[in-house]
Here is the input.
Amino acid sequence: MKVKRSKNMLVIRLDEEEEVISSITEAVASEGVESGIITSFVGALKGCRLILRKGLEKPISTHMEAVGNGNISLYKGAPLVHLHVAAGSDTGFWVGHLTEGVVDIFCEIAIIPVDLKMIRKYGQSLADSGVAVPYILDFE
Here is the structure.
């Protein structure tokens, strides 16, 4: 992983075999980014797990090209990465919430830190209804 920060942008390059969500979490934590907008995610994955809709998670174990965006917020004081991707290959095309993914070749991520505090709160009613990631965005 390589991380570079300018005044208004954090850019991350993930290399082959790195795990996407944990690596982004590590990078933003090390740079002190508590809230931000993932404006760009581009690259290749060799496997991932996507939430396609409520109640349906799909493991995908093939090379795919992926693009996406999302945000960074805090949950219980730690960064939480919320990233949606569109990923495809010659075997299919999927769109959903990325819960884990392994980089194939490389991925590039651009994040704009924001000065408002975005936090996540656990939504019991969402969990009860079968939502796999039941964290509601809120602001302080």
